[in-house]
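Morning F.,

Quick status update on the modeling queue. The single chain you submitted on Monday has been processed. Sequence for confirmation:
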Amino acid sequence: LKSKFGPSPESSSSVLFAGIAMSVWGVVKSYNPLKGFGFLTQSDGQDVFVHVSACNGMAPSAGDVVTYDVTMNDKTGKPNASNVQGCTGSADAAAAKGGGKGAAG
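Structure tokens below.
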């Protein structure tokens, strides 16, 4: 079932529609708390990069089922997760990790 308004709710692969991020679901495949990033696997099998700063104060844990918006990274042209909901990791761990290059710590 196709719609002029984007993929149907049954669709397993909705990324961007008319440049607007759409909410999808996936499972945390891996997460490195020392680096503050990992990967989600969408229901269509595609991996999506996730940074702890996109997780609303929580840290992702492998196996978490999450919902998120998919945006395209301007530098890499690859999909990134944003507005990630459903992470079960410690909020303290999320605040302490993922400072990036040159972060004090």
